């Protein structure tokens, strides 16, 4: 039985297509690399200034001047490049990155994202999240469906300070895969063994669900 | 001696030019590219009331961490300080003023100063809390925020190679903010693992031409810096 995180990552890997330039956010999204087919031709961008990074092989000696934005030592694949921070964000703002995966504290049915600040509790800074969220072609949020107290994280309207507005394309949780559409949040896949009523009960946002077209994951 | 070939100097002499109250850009994203030898010397010499401009706050015992812990930094202009619990505590206690900018805007503000501009127009952050308080302007039917450039009195940068004229070559992801900062400060002090005679570095390999660099200092190879949090995925 895979854990919730493994479940999310395995489903998230299907959002990446060969030939794409992909940014993986810090934390859970970084692990997505291990769920992509090993021979898939994908360039992973890390905003500290590398295109084409990959995890180090198990016993490889790390190069202390090669890290990703999460601070992990990295290797590079054929076709990789390194560059300064202004250029790295030019690549982001010019939408040369096809898809980015990020965590979230809250998301809402307008596609708004809050993932950088909890006033009074957590405010270490925003890093590169704002530009990634606003400018990468597709933003896929990977997060637990509810917080550790069971509260909804998929909301009608975010309450926390926003990282960016109307930026999310798809939300993947352990319970569902939801696309942000003009009409609202449309559920495309629901977790194996979960019924629609339970999904709605765990969600504050209004969900658009067509039970005849619903996939399982 | 000419203006060009008197740049190769010692750590002590280079850092001694920095007065109390200076604004200082510091290269680096995490540990790579952080000019640790220059910062250790700054810690030893005792300058205070500093304004630092750096992507992140390093970790408590690395780079700018010890300067923050020692209360020598009055203000930090940055994008993220999450890996330095001491910096977070100093901020929460009101002893360290922290000004947060989205990372790409911070880089561009520095790049802009280095290019000799007042600032730039952007749509990044419009309608968010972090984007509040900026002047906005309508151009060609759209609203833009005005982002003024950020300059500094000094920049401390880390290069892989230098020559005695001050030409710099960076390596790997240690490049990050270094070439931007090397153009955006009045006085630029670079540390490098090797300082060569002019002509030893291939012209096309040079990232920062010597015109921007005030002084170069040769340092011992790193290898044994403590406390790297970095790890294999």
Query: Which bin fits the share of residues in helices of chain B?
Result: 10-25%
Largest sheet of chain B: 8 strands, mixed
Instruction: Estimate what percentage of residues of chain A fall within beta strands.
Output: 25-35%
Question: Which runs of chain A of at least 5 residues are low in confidence (pLDDT < 50)?
Answer: none
Number of helices of chain B: 6
Pfam family, one (chain A): CoA_trans
Keywords (chain A): Transferase
GO molecular function, one term (chain A): CoA-transferase activity
InterPro entries (chain A): 3-oxoacid_CoA-transf_B, CoA_trans_fam_I, NagB/RpiA_transferase-like
Q: Could you explain the architecture of this structure?
A:
Chain B: GO terms for molecular function: acetate CoA-transferase activity; butyrate-acetoacetate CoA-transferase activity. Chain B: InterPro entries: 3-oxoacid_CoA-transf_A, CoA_trans_fam_I, CoA_transf_BS, NagB/RpiA_transferase-like. Chain B: It is an enzyme of class 2 (transferase). The complex is a heterodimer of chains A (217) and B (233). Chain A has 217 residues and is of the alpha/beta class. Chain A has a single domain, classed as 3-Layer(aba) Sandwich (Glutaconate Coenzyme A-transferase), CATH 3.40.1080. Chain A is built from four helices and 14 strands. In chain A, strands 1, 2, 3, 4, 5, 8, 10, 11, 12, 13 and 14 form an eleven-stranded mixed β-sheet that branches. Chain A has a three-stranded mixed β-sheet with strand order 7-6-9, with no helix packed on it. Chain A starts with a helix and ends with a strand. Chain B has 233 residues and is α/β, with parallel strands linked by helices. Chain B has one domain: Glutaconate Coenzyme A-transferase. In chain B, 19% of the residues lie in helices and 27% in strands. In chain B, the strands form two sheets. In chain B, strands 1, 2, 3, 4, 8, 9, 10 and 11 form an eight-stranded mixed β-sheet that branches. Chain B has a three-stranded antiparallel β-sheet with strand order 5-7-6. In chain B, α4 links the parallel β3 and β4. Chains A and B meet through α2 and α3 of A and α5 and α6 of B.
């Amino acid at each position: 039985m895979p854990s919730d995180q493994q479940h999310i990552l395995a489903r998230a890997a299907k959002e990446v297509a060969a030939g794409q330039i992909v940014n993986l956010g810090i934390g859970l999204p970084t692990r997505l690399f291990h769920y992509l087919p090993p021979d898939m031709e994908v360039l992973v961008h890390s905003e500290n200034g590398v295109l084409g990074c990959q995890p180090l092989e198990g016993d490889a000696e790390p190069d202390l001047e090669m890290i990703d934005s999460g601070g992990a030592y990295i290797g590079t694949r054929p076709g990789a490049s390194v560059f300064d921070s202004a250029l790295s964000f030019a690549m982001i703002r010019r939408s040369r990155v096809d898809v980015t995966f990020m965590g979230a504290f809250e998301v809402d049915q307008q596609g708004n994202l809050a993932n950088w600040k909890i006033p009074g509790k957590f405010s270490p800074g925003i890093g590169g999240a704002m530009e990634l969220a606003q400018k990468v072609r597709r933003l896929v949020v990977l997060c637990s469906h509810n917080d550790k107290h069971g509260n909804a994280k998929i909301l009608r309207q975010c309450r926390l300070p926003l990282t960016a507005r109307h930026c999310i394309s798809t939300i993947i949780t352990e319970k569902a895969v939801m696309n942000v559409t003009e009409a609202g949040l449309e559920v495309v896949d629901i977790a194996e063994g979960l019924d629609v009523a339970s999904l709605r009960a765990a969600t504050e946002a209004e969900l658009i669900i067509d039970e005849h077209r619903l996939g399982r994951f | 001696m000419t203006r060009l070939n008197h740049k190769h100097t010692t750590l002590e002499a280079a850092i001694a030019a920095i007065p109390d109250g200076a604004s200082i850009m510091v290269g680096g994203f995490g540990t790579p590219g952080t000019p640790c030898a220059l910062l250790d010397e700054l810690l030893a010499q005792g300058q205070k009331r500093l304004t630092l401009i750096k992507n992140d706050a390093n970790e408590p015992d690395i780079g700018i961490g010890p300067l923050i812990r020692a209360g020598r930094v009055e203000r930090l202009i940055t994008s993220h300080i999450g890996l330095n619990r001491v910096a977070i505590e100093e901020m929460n206690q009101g002893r360290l003023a922290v000004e947060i900018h989205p990372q790409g805007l911070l880089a561009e503000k520095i790049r802009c100063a280095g290019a000799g501009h007042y600032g730039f127009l952007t749509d990044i952050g419009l309608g968010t809390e972090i984007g509040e308080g900026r002047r906005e302007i309508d151009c060609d039917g759209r609203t833009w925020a005005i982002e003024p450039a950020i300059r500094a009195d000094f920049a401390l940068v880390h290069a892989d190679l230098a020559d005695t004229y001050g030409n710099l070559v960076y390596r790997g992801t240690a490049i990050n903010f270094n070439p931007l900062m090397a153009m955006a400060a009045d006085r630029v002090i670079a540390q490098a693992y090797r300082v060569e005679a002019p002509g030893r570095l291939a012209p096309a390999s040079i990232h920062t031409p010597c015109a921007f660099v005030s002084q170069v200092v040769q340092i011992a190879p790193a290898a044994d810096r403590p406390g790297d949090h970095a790890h294999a995925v």
